[in-house]
Specification:
By secondary structure, this protein is α/β, with parallel strands linked by helices. Helices cover about 40% and strands about 15% of the residues. The chain is built from 23 helices and 22 strands.
């Protein structure tokens, strides 16, 4: 991606905000006096960006790390496989003169310092202190070749920091997340000791791998280091997952095998000391204590949850659409009826209705249901309304085969709805080897979702070498305010077998309102399918589309923005929205370790778009408390189901699989819960350490808790693990 322009630098500004800093161009992009501006915190201005002309500006940019941003700088290609094996791939990668920059998000409070290790550097800052953070050269910057680096193929002895991977990144929250433990593991693997005291304990006699000469359990004479051997053995037993009693039994048996055993009291004191040290260094391995806090036990439930009663219709005229759908559908299912009504509102209001928080109405919908449940009727119902209203120009094709197809459709119909009947198969085709056109089409759709108030441009960042006609053709493809409504359907098996971790990390799923329907195949209703569309809904669609003028058939222009009609939030709506934003932040933190936090990155934005649709459904210029409450409830329901479904269907790693299996087992136990002994019998194939790690992770994440349960008769209370339902009802 060479040939940066002001627009591309502007995108970096949107993503990194105040992290983007200005430095003077020099022989070495880092070691010049111009970069001293960084110490003063001077950031590049909008005016400077607007002045950019040509391939790149006369200055370079840097990105300050820290505050949750970690950049792995790979200068030695031979170490890349090791690094990839630990942190995986990033959705924001930059090629550098020597290698690559991999960008990741992590916990902003994590105590991670920048490590300059020669060949592989890790740039970050401790405790979120940006004043102590390091910076990296931003993509689009240029460095001149010097004696240390022989740069070939650039023609003018220069090297460009080139953005090579840029998948679904609209803002900082879209950058792939890695837990602090993963970053720490990378530091361990590279053999670096952290400079910050207490930031990362790298060595311990309790880790078998770090014990230089772990004792093998053979007898030891009095003058051959019995104490050290005992400590080594206890440390190894802890590492293997033994509790104190079990470790004590083992080390006592070993001690009895010695020609001159240690005194029992002395041995016990040494074992206790080892355990206490271990608990200080590894608090995650402490015994799990029963909670004294009141909790709500999470009941077992299916992935596909039934639509709550308050969401079985929509306030206003779109509620009439839901009723008509249910009366006329051969196989009526309310989840599909409500999704169809919202999709109708999304496309009818698309491109011209805008909230005071800059939210347009275009949304992506996905209904996951079994075959033969009548998913296809939603498409027919929407098309009947649009045809009756004379708005058939809003009906697009049935999918996109390439990024060019997306642009061509938008050029002809800047506002349109596209129906994809088998979205799971569509994703499977995208993942197929060599199908780069479909993959890029999905990438373009992801980008279009965040360009509703901007311009969508082809991903041809450089026009160098093109003829004037070719450059003009590229420029004509740009679309101002692309308003795509995706209405898609799939079966559970097709969908969840088609998606992978890359789809989650790229934020694709988080842009969809995914509703899982538990509808079953049944006898089809006959005799009511020819009922005419409700006149009130038809008139509403016509009037909303015609309001303000300029959006009738044949008038929309893809590169000219129509006038917008503003919808304001009432104070009551803001109260509901603020509470949902706080809830969303809490939920994302809980899901961060498992990488599912990205699924909720758009939940608040989507709730605001839904609220705009509901307000217009009520023919109101304002989003009141009722509209916002309904929108928040629908967004919460959809994303709760998505998070749980992904948790059921995708585990991502062996550790994730163990953790998820344990959670499901505890959830299935219901009020009775599962004791530690029952858990160990259920998962007897796991090593003690694997069992303990997964169990501790579930407890620390608040997904399960150890509680005391009264017996019906006399005797000691039963201690058992139960699944915990959080206040919002989200699956953790």
């Amino acid at each position: 991606m060479t040939g940066f322009t002001a627009a591309h630098w502007g995108e970096l500004t949107n993503i990194f905000g105040g992290r983007l800093l200005r430095g003077e161009r020099g022989t070495n992009a880092i070691k010049t006096e111009g970069w001293n501006l960084f110490s003063n915190g001077d950031t590049v201005t909008a005016e400077e960006l607007e002045a950019v002309d040509g391939d790149a500006p006369a200055f370079n940019l840097g990105i300050r790390t820290g505050r949750g941003l970690v950049v792995v700088d790979i200068d030695k290609p031979e170490k890349e496989p090791l690094i990839r094996g630990i942190v995986g791939h990033s959705n924001f990668e930059v090629s550098t003169p020597r290698g690559k920059h991999l960008y990741f998000r992590t916990d902003p409070d994590a105590k991670i310092q920048s490590r300059i290790m020669g060949g592989v550097d890790i740039f970050c800052s401790p405790s979120g202190d940006s004043s102590k953070g390091s910076y990296v050269v931003a993509p689009g910057s240029v460095r001149t070749a010097d004696r240390d680096i022989k740069l070939k193929g650039y023609g003018v002895e220069r090297a460009v920091y080139d953005l090579t991977v840029f998948d679904g990144v609209d803002d900082f929250d879209d950058i792939a997340y890695r837990s602090p433990d993963v970053i720490y593991e990378l530091v361990r693997a590279l053999g670096s000791v952290p400079a910050m005291p207490g930031a990362l304990p790298l060595t311990s006699i309790f880790d078998v791998a770090s014990v230089k000469i772990p004792h093998d359990g053979s007898p030891v004479a009095a003058n051959e280091g019995r104490n050290n051997a005992a400590a080594s053995l206890v440390g190894q037993y802890i590492h293997e997952g033994d509790d104190f009693n079990k470790a004590w039994q083992k080390v006592s048996a070993w001690n009895d095998s010695n020609p001159e055993p240690l005194d029992g009291t002395e041995l016990h004191k040494a074992a206790v000391s080892v355990f206490k040290s271990h608990e200080r260094n590894h608090p995650e391995d402490k015994p799990i204590e029963p909670t004294s806090e009141p909790i709500r036990i999470k009941k077992p439930r299916t992935v596909a949850s039934v639509l709550p009663e308050q969401l079985r219709t929509i306030p206003g005229i779109l509620g009439d659409f839901v009723q008509w759908y249910m009366e006329t559908a051969p196989a009526p299912h309310v989840e599909m009826a409500v999704q169809s009504a919202l999709a109708l509102g999304s496309v009818v209001l698309g491109r011209k209705y805008l909230t005071t928080e800059s939210n347009f109405t275009s949304l992506y919908f996905l209904t996951v249901a079994k075959s033969g449940t009548g998913k296809e009727y939603g498409k027919k119902a929407i098309e009947k309304i649009l045809d009756a209203a004379g708005l058939d120009e809003l009906i697009g094709g049935s999918g996109y085969t390439s990024p060019g197809a997306v642009y061509s459709e938008l050029r002809d119909r800047p506002t349109h709805i596209t129906v994809i009947d088998e979205f799971g198969k569509y994703l499977q085709a995208c993942s197929a080897s060599g199908n780069s056109q479909l993959q890029e089409a999905v990438t373009t759709l992801i980008e279009a979702f965040g360009r509703l108030d901007g311009t969508l441009r082809p991903r041809a960042y450089s026009t160098m070498g093109l003829t004037e006609k070719q450059r003009n053709d590229v420029d004509r493809l740009k679309v101002t305010r692309p308003a795509i409504t995706l209405y898609s359907m799939t079966t559970p098996k097709q969908f969840y077998s088609a998606i992978g971790e890359a789809d989650i990390e790229a934020g694709m799923l988080g842009r969809f309102l995914v509703v899982n329907s538990d509808a079953e195949c049944g006898a089809r209703k006959r005799g009511q399918t020819k009922a005419a569309p409700p006149a009130g809904v038809v008139r509403w669609a016509q009037s909303m589309r015609d309001a303000g003028g300029g959006n009738l058939a044949g008038v929309e222009v893809h590169d000219v923005a129509p006038k917008t009609i503003e919808i304001e939030f009432t104070p009551a709506a803001y109260d509901v929205l603020d509470a949902f934003e706080a809830e969303n932040v809490t939920q994302r933190r809980k899901l961060a370790d498992g990488g599912r936090d990205v699924l909720l990155a758009r939940a608040v934005e989507i709730a605001m778009r839904l609220a705009a649709i509901v307000a217009c459904s009520k023919s109101s210029p304002r989003i009141d408390g009722e509209a916002m409450e309904w929108a928040v409830a629908y967004s919460r329901h959809a994303f709760e189901g998505l998070v749980e479904a992904v948790g059921h269907q995708m585990t991502g790693s062996e550790f994730g699989a163990r953790r998820q299996a344990m959670l499901e087992a505890v959830m299935a136990a219901g009020d009775r819960g599962m004791t530690d002994r029952e858990m160990k019998r259920r998962f007897k194939r796991l090593k003690p350490k694997e069992h303990a790690e997964a169990l501790r992770a579930l407890v620390d994440a608040g997904e399960i808790a150890l509680v005391e349960i009264d017996h019906q008769g006399a005797g000691r209370k039963r201690q058992a693990f139960v699944a915990v339902e959080d206040e919002a009802g989200y699956a953790h």
